[in-house]
Amino acid sequence: MELWFTEEHTDYAKFSFKVKKHLYSEKSPFQQVDFIDTYEFGKVLLLDGLVMVTEKDEFIYHDMITHVAMATNPEIKRVLVIGGGDGGTVRELTRYNTIEKIDMVEIDELVVKASREFLPLTSSKLDDERVTLYFEDGIKFVEDKENEYDLIIVDSTDPIGPGEGLFTTEFYKNCYKALSDKGILVNQNESPYYERDAKAMLRATGKLKKIFPIVEVYQFHMPTYPSGHWLFGFASKSLHPIKDFKPEEWKKFNLKTKYYNTEIHVGAFALPTYVKEMIEAGVK
Amino acid sequence: MELWFTEEHTDYAKFSFKVKKHLYSEKSPFQQVDFIDTYEFGKVLLLDGLVMVTEKDEFIYHDMITHVAMATNPEIKRVLVIGGGDGGTVRELTRYNTIEKIDMVEIDELVVKASREFLPLTSSKLDDERVTLYFEDGIKFVEDKENEYDLIIVDSTDPIGPGEGLFTTEFYKNCYKALSDKGILVNQNESPYYERDAKAMLRATGKLKKIFPIVEVYQFHMPTYPSGHWLFGFASKSLHPIKDFKPEEWKKFNLKTKYYNTEIHVGAFALPTYVKEMIEAGVK
Amino acid sequence: MELWFTEEHTDYAKFSFKVKKHLYSEKSPFQQVDFIDTYEFGKVLLLDGLVMVTEKDEFIYHDMITHVAMATNPEIKRVLVIGGGDGGTVRELTRYNTIEKIDMVEIDELVVKASREFLPLTSSKLDDERVTLYFEDGIKFVEDKENEYDLIIVDSTDPIGPGEGLFTTEFYKNCYKALSDKGILVNQNESPYYERDAKAMLRATGKLKKIFPIVEVYQFHMPTYPSGHWLFGFASKSLHPIKDFKPEEWKKFNLKTKYYNTEIHVGAFALPTYVKEMIEAGVK
Amino acid sequence: MELWFTEEHTDYAKFSFKVKKHLYSEKSPFQQVDFIDTYEFGKVLLLDGLVMVTEKDEFIYHDMITHVAMATNPEIKRVLVIGGGDGGTVRELTRYNTIEKIDMVEIDELVVKASREFLPLTSSKLDDERVTLYFEDGIKFVEDKENEYDLIIVDSTDPIGPGEGLFTTEFYKNCYKALSDKGILVNQNESPYYERDAKAMLRATGKLKKIFPIVEVYQFHMPTYPSGHWLFGFASKSLHPIKDFKPEEWKKFNLKTKYYNTEIHVGAFALPTYVKEMIEAGVK
C-alpha cells in the first residue's frame, strides 16, 4: 500500500517516506503524538507532525547531545534533561557510571508512555535508579534551582508549540542559575540552512551569548532532519568545548559509540564560513 | 501552479521541491539533461532526473572538491577535471593564480552548453585562458597520460550511466600514472548513509586503496543530495591531507570562501565512528 | 500530520488523499487488507493497496450493483453474491422482502471480519437470516450449481490477484448454468477510460457475449475509482435491462435510494460513443 | 525525470500526473496561464494552476457543452460563447453549417494566443469566417445585447478569479435579455460531489431558476476534473432539453462525435437521487 508520510521542510521543499503502519495517534494536552513504522527509518516518533526520532538515525542525535559535554567535563555528576521524552538522551547519560543523578523533566507524559511502548531502543534506561522523571513544565522546574546541576540538556522540539518557552532569555537565565560553576548547557539549536531554522538558531544563540561567557555551536549530520545539517548549542560558565576538551579522560570511560568520537568532537565545532559569519552577524 | 520535482533517495524515501518553471529538457547521446527553476534552490541542473547542481548550495560542493587538495599542496600547477560540466569546479580552480593549466574533460558537450545558458554562476570561468575543454571520454583521455597533472578531480555523476567507468580500478590506475609524484586525486564519493550509496563509496574506496598509498574520505553537508551527508575521496601518491596540510600557506591565497575554511579542512576528515568502521570493514 | 494514501491509477496518474489514522493492516492468505480513516472519504477499505470501499461513496456502487437487476426482474428470489466481503451488496439486497435467499461466497474471511469492525455501515446486514456466508472460492462454489439462482452478482476486485479467476470464460459458463431461465449476472466491469482498465472490461465483455444472449454494460459516477467513470456488466439468459425494465413495479418496493432511480436506470445504459465503439470492436 | 503536476481537488484529496515538459508559463493581467505536456493526458492547459483542457478528454467536455443545445434546437443560428479561450467549444459549433454567426468573448487574449500554439486540436476553428473574437469582459459584452443570440454558452472557469462574475444574477439576467424567444443558455456548472463544487453549482442553479422558466442540470464523465462527475446547466426561455429534444433532426447533421449521442443526451439529464434532492433543496 502506498502510504507516505510527508514533512514540509519549507514551503517549497518536502521530505517523504513510505509508511508500513501507523502505530499510534493521540492528542495530548500539549501536542499531537504519532508513531509510524517505516520502511527506510524503522519506527518514527512524530510530534505535531514533525520527525523527532527515528530508529535509524537517533544514535547520531543522542551521541552528539551528550558526549560532547561529557568529554569536556568528565566529572559531571548531576544532570538535568529538559524534554527528551523518547529517553534517548537519558539512555546515553546512564552509560556513565560517574553520573549520580539524572532529572528528566518532560512536560508531556504521553510521549514517555508511548515511547516506552514503541521505542524501547531509546526509552530502555528511563527506569535506571539514578533517573527521576518529572512530568511538568521545564521552564517552571528550573525557576527555583540554584547550583544544582553540572549539565543541563535542553532536548526540545522546535521553538513553536510546547517547545517555545525553552528558547527564551528568561529560561536561559534560570538555567545559568541552576548550573554549578563548571556548568554546561547543551541545547537543541536547529539548522543553519533553511531560513526559518537559521533564524531560530541565531535568536537562541544571541540570547545565550548575553548570559553565558562561553557560547559555541556545533554541527552533525542528521539525515532525517531538514537539510541534514543540524546544530546543538554549547554554553558554559567556564569550560570551553575545545580548549578544555579531555579526549584521553573520555576514552577511559570505554564507551562504544556509533557516531561520536574524539576527532568528531573537534570537527563538529569547525563550522562552515557562512555559518560562522551568520552567527557573528547575529539576527538583524 | 503545483509543479513538483521529486528525487527518490531510496525506494522508500523521496525529496521533492516546488518548480517555478521547467527551463530546458534535452536528451544527449549520454543522458537526459534538464534545468528547472525552483522556489527553494534557484536553478537546478538534473542529469537523468537526479539533482547535480543547485544555485543555493553548489558553493558547498565546489569549495570542498577543490580547496582541500589545494591547501594540502598549494604548489599544484596542472589540474585535470573529469566531468564537472557545470563549470563550478573549474571556477574555483581559476581563483588560484598559481595554477597554470586546467584541462576539463566532459563527455557530454550538451551539459556545458546548457550550463553556460542556465547556470552562469558556475560556468562563468570556463573561458579562462588557462582552461582547455575536451568533449570526450575521461576514461580514454587519461589512458596515455604520464606525470602530467598535480591534481585530478573526478567530478562525476553516480556510478550508474555515463559515470560508471569513472569508478573502476583501471581508470584509477591510469589516474595514478597521469599524476606527478605529489599527485592528488579527489573523487566524488557518494554517501555513507543510504545503503546503495554506501556500497558505491566502499567499492570506490576499496579500489583506490589498492592503488594509492594514501586514501582518505572526507565529508560535508550537502542538503540537496540524499541524506545531506556527502563524501569526497582523497587519494595521493605521497601527501596526507592532514599531516601535510598547510593552512598558513593556503590563507596567503586570500580567497574568500563560503563553506571551506582551514578548520573545516580538518573537521571534514573526522568521520563518524560508523563510517570509519564501514570503511575499515570494506565491502563484503 | 501529513500522512497520505496514494493510488496509482496509471503509471502516470495518481490520486492521493489525506489519512487521519491507519486503522488496520493484516495480510490474509489472499491479499493485503487495510482500513484507513480519511478526512475526505471517511473510512476506506483497501485490498492490495487499492481503494475498494469508502464511506462517502459506497452508496453509489452498491445501489448500482443491485437495483438495476432488481428493477429488471422484481421477482428475483434467490441471489448469489461472489466477493463483496464488505457487505454493502448484501445490505442492499436484504432491503427486498421478496428475496428469500442470499448466498454470499467470499474467499477471504478476513475482509468480512474486518469490515464488521470498521465498516458497520456496509456490513450491517450480514446477519440477516436469509444470508448464508461461505468463506470459500467462488469459482469452485458455482461449479456444481444448476438453476439455483435468479441473480448472481460478481462483486470482485480487479482481474489481478484473487479476483483473476472471476474474469474467466469457465467461471462465466458455470454462472450461466447456475442461473435460472430468467437469470441475470451482474459483474464488476472496470472502466473504459484508462487503457489497462478498458482492456480488462473488453476482455470480460467479450467472454460474456459468447455465453449469454443478452450482454450490456452500464456506467455510473464513482469518484474514488480511477477516472470516476466505472462500469458494471449485465448479462442475462432472457431479460433485457431496458426492454424488460419494470419501473412501476420497482417503485412499489418503496425503497429510498441515494443514487439509483428509475431514470438513472435508463441513463446508465446510454454509453458514450467511444465506449460503444470500443465494445463493438472488442479486444484486438 | 520525476516531475509531477498536482491539483488539489479538496484540502484532503489531490490528483497528480506526470509531466514531460513544462511548455509555457505566463502571467496575464487576469490569471496565470500554463501549458504542460503530460504522459497520460497529452498537452494540458492550466489556468491559475487548475486543469482546464487536456488533449485526452477535451472531446467529452466540448461535445456536451454544444450538442445538447443543438439537438434541442437544431435551428440555432446565432451563438455567443463567453470564455472558452482554448477554442474547443467554437470548434464543435463550426461543425454545424446552419450556424451563421459565432461571437466568442474571451477576457484573456493570452489564453487564445497560447492555445493556438499549444492546442491546435481545440483552437483549429477560431479562424472560421463565421467566428468573431472579442477580447473583452463577457459580463460587459452582454449588457446591451437584446434578442441577438439563440444560444449563449458560458464556458467559464470556476467562480473564483476572472470567472466569478459569470456566476452572478445580473449576468444571467443580461443573458436572458440577449437571447431570442427560443434562446438557450448552457453554463459550466461545477460538480455535485465535493462540497465546495456542489455549493457553487447550487448557487448558480438557484439564480438561474429565478430568471429562466426552464432550468435543468446535466452530467457527464470528465475524468480530469474533480471527482470525474461534472455538470452543465441548461436554461431556456421556452425549450425543454428532453421534451423538445429532436434526435432525428440532429442525426441529419451527420456529425461524428466521440462522446455525445442521442441516448446520452437523455441519459445525461437522469441525475442521481442525491443530486436531484440537493438541487430541490437549494442552497441553505
UniProtKB/TrEMBL annotation, chains A, B, C, D:
It holds the Pfam family Spermine_synt_N. Spermidine binds at residues 62, 86, 155-158. S-methyl-5'-thioadenosine binds at residues 31, 106, 137-138, 162. Its EC number is 2.5.1.16. The keyword Kinase does not apply. Keywords: Polyamine biosynthesis, Spermidine biosynthesis, Transferase. Residues 2-237 form the PABS domain. Belongs to the spermidine/spermine synthase family. Catalyzes the irreversible transfer of a propylamine group from the amino donor S-adenosylmethioninamine (decarboxy-AdoMet) to putrescine (1,4-diaminobutane) to yield spermidine. This is Polyamine aminopropyltransferase. It comes from Caloranaerobacter azorensis H53214.
